[in-house]
Structures are given as C-alpha cells and as structure tokens.
Amino acid sequence: MAPVLTTRVDANSSTYRDNHAAMMTALAELDELNQRVVGGGGSDDPDKNARSVARHRSRGKMLPRERINGLLDVGSPFLELSPLAGWGTDDPLGAGVVAGIGRVHGSDVMIVANDPTVKGGAQGPSAVAKGLRAMDIARENRLPLVNLTESAGADLPKQAEIFVPGGASFRNLTQLSAAGIPTITLVFGSSTAGGAYVPGMSDYVVLVQDAARVYLGGPPLVKMAIDEDADEESLGGADMHARTSGLADYLARDEHDALRIGRDIIAHLRLPRAGGGQERIAKPPRFSADELLGIASADVRQPFDAREVLARILDDSEFEQFKPLYGSTLVTGWGHLGGYPVGVLANNGILFSEESHKGAQFIQLCNRMNVPIIFAQNITGFMVGTQYEQGGIIKDGAKLINAVSNSTVPHLTLMMGASYGAGNYGMSGRSYNPRFVFTWPNHRIAVMGAKQLAGVLTIVARQKTEAAGAEFDEAAFAPLRDTFEQQVESQSTALYATGHLWDDGIIDPRDTRTALTMALSAVHNAPVTGTDAFGVFRM
Asked: Residues of the chain whose pLDDT is less than 50?
C-alpha cells in the first residue's frame, strides 16, 4: 500500500476564494460556448441556428449527439474531444464535427459524426484537422473507428486550405484497416464527391434507405460533365448501392436501425484489449474534486502544490513519491487512476538540472515497468542565467527531452497551469505525441509569458538602435510593445489553444479523474510496452 497524500488546502483563504471565483467565471464562459455547439447550426445567429436544426428535424433526422447516444451502451459516458475546435478562427465553432470515445458492447470505440446542421456537414480546415486527430487516436490506441456520416463534402470556398491535408483521411482509413483496426461507416444522408470515399474505404458500410446518397458526382455535375440526365437514387441511392454497386454491406430501414446494425457489427468483432485491464479496483480520492477549483492559480505566475491536485485525482489519494528530497520542483512517483497503474511527473516550479536528471531516470523506470505516464504541466521552463548555463542546464535539460522523446509507454498530458518554452517539450507537450492532452481553463501556453516576451522585444530593439548609433525612444516604442504583449496574451489562452487543436479539449478540473480514466482505458486497447532504446545522454 502506497503512502496517502495529505492536504494543506484552506478553503477559507483569500487565495483559494479568488482562484475559485476566477475558475467559475471561466467555466461559465466554456459552458456557454459548449451549449452553442451542442445546439447546432454553427453560426453566431441563434435564430438562424434554430431554423437549421428545425429543417434537419423536419426530415425525420437525428442530431449528431443523438446518433452517438443511440450507438453507445446505455449509461455509457462519452469523452468528447476538441468540442471547441475552430474557436478564434473563421470556421464554425466546433468545426461541424463531433468526435470522441465511447463504449459499445463493452468495447472502446472512436466515433466521428458530422453535424449536418452546420453548413450541411461541409468540411472546413478545422473539421479536417479534427477528423485527422481522431484517426491518429484510433490508430495509436487501436480503437475501432465509427463514422456517422452526413456531409456535403468540402467547404468549397476553403478548398485551397483543405484539399491537400484532407487527402490524408482516405490514406488513414486504408492504413487503419491494414493494421487490423476496424473501420465502420454509417451513412445517414449525403456523402458526396471526396466524401464518397469514406464509406468506399471502410471495412463495413451501412446506408439508410431513402436517405443516404453516396456518389462522386451529383446530378448537376453529371449533366455538366457528360450531358447525362440522372436522378439521385440511380446515381447513389442506398437501395442501388445495396442491390447493384455492392458498396452497401447493410441496408437500414431508418436511422435507429442503422445504429442497431452498427452496434451489432461492433459486437461481432470480439475486440481484444492488448494492453490488459485494470490492475485493481478503483477507489475514489480521499479529498473532494470540487477543491480543484480553488487550488489551480488564476494567475499562472502564482505557484501551487501539484500534490494537492494528485491527492484529488489518484485512487485513494495514494502516491509513492520517487526521489522526494531531490529535484523538488518536479514531483515524480507512482499511483493508480481508475484502477490503472500510472507514473506521474508533475511540476512544482521551474526545471533545474536536478529535476531534469530525476525526470529522465523516472521515465526510464516507467518504461522498464511498462507503466503509462501522466505529465501534469505547470511550468515556466528551464532555468536560465550564467550560473545555470555554466552548470550544464542545456545538456541536462536535453536528457529529459531525450527521455520524453523516446519513451514508448503511453503519455497523457494535463495542462493545469502554465506551459512555457522548452518546459512544454520536457513535459510531453503536443509536439511530443502524447496519446491525449487535456487542459484546464486557466492554462496558458507560449514561448514565455506575454510580459517577458514584450520585454525581450524591447531589449532587442534598444540594442539594435544603439548599435546603429541612435538613441532609443522608449515612449515611441511603447505602443508597439503593448500591442505585441496583448497579441501574445490573446494567443496564449486555453481557448486559443483548443480552437487551434493544440489539445484534445478544455475540461472542468472536477472532471479530470473521469477524463484521464477514460483515456487510460483507451490506451490499454493497444500494447503498453516500454523501451530501453534512448538517444545518447550527454553526461
């Protein structure tokens, strides 16, 4: 039995209350944005959205999340990924696609559903990126991929942005199949042009009678291309594909029947879990998850103890710390989450040489034990300055990045505060291919803090001016500095990051344990295997 973490949280302190108030404000904004996405329509005009949804329902059709609910096991949770993709861009909020992981007949599956109330389900840049990310997750974790398709194809005004990257989706479908990962497509409406290849390249295809339309070119295009008058049913109707072309493996009476067939397909796959199951029965933490709202700092410049977070997400709040007295600004150790064994690296401050040594050794140990790693980020970077440069911070930091880069056990990254500079890399940021990345609303990500970046810009400008023999005008430069600082600040927020798919979604801190448990379940569908093959460590 591992030691149990204790707590020093004072819910009556001003710091706690201020953090709690700031987090609740951020969560209220997130809730409003998520409600807009769930409501459908995809525009900023509520009346227009309502008309789009009403028109869709008038055709006897379900909304995408209703289709997903009909596919999932009753009462099964759904881990929706990147629900706010497209925020801060000119793409629709949510990208017109719903993606996430749920359970069907006891198996974890990746589900991607078009939202036809948003531009007819047309695919823009954010939708393409979201779909490709879902395929990556399916491949890495060996999850069956289920497409719930109803799409007008490419968002043609943005074709230059999506044509080249979008082609990877067809390649990915065939590669998933070649890897023995099932691909299943249920077509509820239009699946045209390039979108026709989604069912065409899937292992199993279900078409809804009198609703599904799958063709490379619709009647207008056929008329223009070869001067043939053709109707939609003859070109790509569900009945035709079931009886004549052979594209359809199953012909469904209606949407509910299609979902039933989809569930039956997954049931007969008898999918193994190559990574095994839970090691022990999960026990809830001894401390309330509600307290996470007041623990995380609203101002990421203010530190907080990462162990207070671990005490509220790990099973029974048990945590066996590794090297607790050495490199103390990096907390490392082992515990369980949702019954699964995990190693944890969590920031308690800036990374020095000692933390880099400790982290690299711990990652090697987790690989030797075949244990997934959770990286809990709240990091301003590696230490700088003459003393530390002469002490070898570059080669020492490289050890940690080497270990992170070559580790083969699954990484799950939680952004619970700052994520600046190479600290992001050393703690398995997005570019280091963790299986999942979740963020809290207070998260900030950039090369460094906005004030620091603006200050660096000012120093460089002053040095350049003085080197040219001129006098630097601080007052004249101030507006440029302030504009740059505001730009960096706006591009460092959790919303900006999630809008650009730098993570897999912003989560309520209280939902952290649930999200990580579902992610751990997903990664155990693939082998959980470590390595002893690392790059050369500069000693």
From this structure: none
